Amino acid sequence: MSETHDRHARLAEMDTRELELGAVANLSPQTRRTYAALWRAHVHPRLGAEDLRSLQPLAIASFRRELTDAGVPPDSVRATLVLLQSVFGGPGADPIAGSPADETDGDDVPKPFEPREIERLRAALSTRDAVIVSLLAYAGLRPGEVLALRWSDVGHGKIRVDGHRQTVRRGTSVQGVREVRLFRALATDLAAWKTRAGVASDDELVIPGPEGGAWNDAAWSEWRRLRFFPAAEAAGFPQGTRPYDLRHTFVWLLLREGSSVVDLARETGYSPLTALRLYRGLAERADTAGHRLAPEAIAVARAA
Fold it and tell me: Cα 213 to the chain's mean position, in Å?
């Protein structure tokens, strides 16, 4: 049996479990079944005999045109391309970058803040509140994830985010478990805060509520009104900036490092399709902005 035939047979046998790579690990069973159906309907018939990891951008662009010409709905085309990217599995082998779904309109591209802006905001806040900002901007946590974070979740070089524990749900749409890289600057912030707070147990919340326990919606709303919004205005942030908006900075830092949409989805807790829809335009801006390591960018901002 030829190598091509072997590869074709292996691809034909791929099912939902084999497609559960890092890109789709956080998806619901229904979404995974949808991706498996897309694979059988569109990828395997057209690319089943190809070595997917050796495909070039022009081949992917041709594949996309073929789907469109065949009358495949745009959403299905987009989802199929995201599925392909999960198979490539990394920024070094990302032939879909630059050819997938329809572009997001420029006005809809999320506005990330540069580290220098984040550092101005942190300087206008207390130590505890500055740590909240760091977790939002430098780890991409949602507000509810920040307030549910415990010291036992903070490890060496990573943060474990458990969405199931959240008590404040604003701006939160994912309740899975994921790991997020821990940049050196954020690790320094957390270590200093842990010492200052006199933490006695790793079971304690990293950011306790106003009464020392868990936060609720009312307490979070009050923090936004009395702490965050005045500090954001003083730091020159656009009117209407929310704590949740700082999350886009983390995405920007990852994209500037060369992360793929698959990597982005894994670290933000989005599905690959959602990550592509939200950050396609931002990824293109990152391509023109040039490569830069996130720790370096934060360190320069702090030194300034």
Answer: 28
Residue whose C-alpha is closest to residue 120's, from 44, 234, 209, 229: 234
- Name residue 150's beta-bridge partners: 205
CB distance 147 to 209 below 8 Å: yes
Which segments of the chain belong to CATH 1.10.150?
Answer: 3-102
Residue 82: count of CB within 10 angstroms of its CB: 26
Q: What are the tens digits of pLDDT across the range 109-152?
A: 688 999 999 999 999 999 999 999 999 999 999 999 999 999 99
Cα within 13 Å of Cα(169), Cβ side: 4
In this structure, which amino acid lies at residue 245? D
DSSP three-state, residue 158: strand
CATH number of 3-102, picked from 1.10.12, 1.10.150, 1.10.575, 3.90.550: 1.10.150
Measure the CA–CA gap between 13 and 44, rounded to whole angstroms. 10
Here the tokens at position 240 are 């209407």
Which DSSP symbol is given to 112?
P
Tokens of 90: 């990394």
Over the stretch 141-187, which tens digit does the pLDDT of each residue have? 999 999 999 999 999 999 999 877 766 555 444 557 899 999 999 99
Helix (H) or strand (E) holding 193: helix 184-197
C-alpha span between 142 and 247 (Å, rounded): 7
- SS percent in the chain: helix, strand, coil, step 5: 60, 5, 35
Alpha carbons 145 and 140: distance in angstroms, whole number:
10
State the chain's mean pLDDT as an integer. Answer: 79
Q: Domain spanning 110-303: which CATH class is it, in words?
A: mainly alpha
The total of other beta-carbon atoms located within 10 Å of residue 303's CB is 7
